[in-house]
Design a protein that fits this description.
Radius of gyration: 51 Å
Number of helices: 4
Order of helices and strands: HHHEEEEEHEE
Distance between the termini: 159 Å
Largest sheet: 5 strands, antiparallel
Strand content: 15-25%
Length: 239
Amino acid sequence: MIPGVGAQALRAVTAEQKAADEAARASQNQINQVLDRKQDLSNKYAQIMAETDSLVKYNEHLSGQVKAQQGEMASIEKQLLEIETTNREVQPLMQRMVDTLAEFVALDVPFLLEERTERVNTIKELLLRSDVSISEKYRRIMEAYQIELEFGRTFDSYQGKIGVGDGAKTVQFVRLGRVSLMYQTLDEQETGYWDAKKKAWVQDNSYAEQVKEAMSVANKDGAPDLVTVPVPAPQDVKL
């Protein structure tokens, strides 16, 4: 072998080997970059999938909430419709109850007439108010009925007037339920009672002592006793 030729061949081989090594390293670098890119993409994909899964679950949660709210709204609308229907049905009923109560007071024994009439008129005005609930209106009506019911079981004495205008006079009334309503002037010179059949006051001084005694018992100044009270058909009543 010629020495010069051998050295040249060796350098050529060495150069080729070096070029091959560089090419291999470049190729490996490209492979590594591709693998790194692939890993990055894989990581991002996993992250996106996790976020997607989270969004899906969140959307399902929101969907459930929306359905629940829709159901609740439907229920509320139904209740409002029922309330509106109930109001339409109850309002005329309550009006009839108040009208009946007003008629009853007007035709009843005229005790505490101003107080009782004012109570009815107040309820009539209450029925016209939109800011008062149906339940409160009904409660007030039933309360008025209960008060009227109690009047039939109670015994009391109070001061008031008989007559109107210049002819009005102050008297002391005594009421025994709805059985008898009696009066006596403050000077005790006149005694009388309400005649339910005649719908008029009847003066009858023959009952002066009995009425005075009944007033004493009503005011708790005297002991309960058997007293004859004036009614259209006189009867003995236990006070």
